[in-house]
Amino acid sequence: MPLDTKSYEIPVARSAADLREAVAAWRAEGLSVALVPTMGALHEGHLSLVDLARKNADRTIVSIFVNPTQFAPNEDFSAYPRTEAADAAKLEGKADLIFAPNAEDMYPEGFSTTISLTGVSEPLEGTFRPTHFAGVATVVAKLILRAMPDIAIFGEKDWQQLMVIRRMVADLDIPTKILGGPIVREPDGLALSSRNVYLSPEERKAAGQLNVILRETAASVANGAPISEATAKGGKRILALGFEKLDYLEVRDAASLAPFPNDRPTAPARILVAAKIGKTRLIDNMPV
After folding, report:
1. Residue 267 pLDDT > 60, yes or no?
2. Do domains 12-181 and 194-287 have the same CATH topology?
3. Are 270 and 288 in contact (CB under 8 A)?
4. For residue 178, is pLDDT > 90?
5. 3-state helix/strand/coil string of the chain
6. Catalytic annotation on 46?
7. Least CB-packed of 50, 222, 235, 286 within 10 Å?
8. 67 φ, ψ (degrees, to nearest 5)
9. 158: Cα separation from own chain's centroid
10. Domain residue spans in the chain?
């Protein structure tokens, strides 16, 4: 199947063969390649990653694929927004190619391989979504091996995901450099997310305070407060906003995501949160 150059202003590859053909043509010209994996429903956070890709490579691929294997049965796979035409319009003049496979192409009949990690994948999201990172690692490995980019770029909003992918690439000797793009926030500090569209006006107002509590809790720890004391206070404030459930509010080693044994940071640290308000589960993080 040739590249789809009729549907949008930007060409679209629908199969691995078409993607590899396009990349091979760039390689023949001596051009470097960046990959920005996404699940679509693009916002300014995604586009900032595309801008970062353009600064670091000659050609940029944006993949759009809502990956079923990283959703648990009770999660929002069927409801996850799918806006390919709008996404393509946003990428005009920014990316050079969209890779938009379907599930049958990514996971053909008989597919039976999963990449799973220990360590960095196990706490936090791994506790509450135990199958999630195996799905992420598997699909990211497939996307990287299909495109073989020089660099691949992921947002720091999913900090644990970024650490998982860096670990996987290092462990499997995949010759792609993994870059993290800074979190893009709304004026009130809410981290941009495709799931923010699910928030009611009241929920959106409360969600805008999540980053404030995160920042103040991180400052408390940085100023010497015990981690357990500071995060307990922060957790109570989050629930008082109207969040129904707090999965975690933790300060962890920024690279390994291991807890600090003496209740105080002894290495570069990150504070991470996951909390649910209404039907929407929000995550965020920042350095301590």
Report:
1. yes
2. no
3. yes
4. yes
5. CCCECCCCCCCEECCHHHHHHHHHHHHHCCCCEEEEEECCCCCHHHHHHHHHHHHHCCEEEEEECCCHHHCCCCCCCCCCCCCHHHHHHHHCCCCCEEECCCHHHHCCCCCCCCCCCCHHHCCCHHHHCCCHHHHHHHHHHHHHHHHCCCEEEEEHHHHHHHHHHHHHHHHCCCCCEEEEECCCECCCCCECCHHHHHCCHHHHHHHCCHHHHHHHHHHHHHCCCCHHHHHHHHHHHHHHCCCCEEEEEEEEECCCCCECCCCCCCCCEEEEEEEEECCEEEEEEEEC
6. yes
7. 222
8. -85, 110
9. 4
10. 12-181, 194-287
Q: Is the pTM of this model over 0.85?
A: yes
* Mean per-residue pLDDT of the chain: 97
What's the confidence (pLDDT) of residue 63?
98
Catalytic residue among 10, 11, 33, 46: 46
Q: Topology of 194-287 in CATH? A: Pantoate--beta-alanine Ligase; Chain: A,domain 2 (3.30.1300)
Please state the rounded mean pLDDT for residues 63-86.
93
The band of 10, judged by pLDDT with boundaries at 50, 70 and 90, is: very high
Q: What is the mean pLDDT of residues 226-240?
A: 98
Looking up tokens 């990349």 gives 23
CATH superfamily of domain region 12-181 = HUPs (3.40.50.620)
- pLDDT value, residue 4: 84
76 pLDDT band (50/70/90 cuts)?
Answer: confident
Q: With CA atoms as reference, report the closest residue to 235 among 265, 274, 185.
A: 274
Give the whole-angstrom CA distance, residue 33 versus residue 261.
Answer: 42
Sign of the Cα torsion 151, 156, 161, 167 reads: positive
Q: What is the CA radius of gyration of the chain?
A: 19
What pLDDT, in 10s, does the model give residues 181-194?
Answer: 999 999 999 999 99
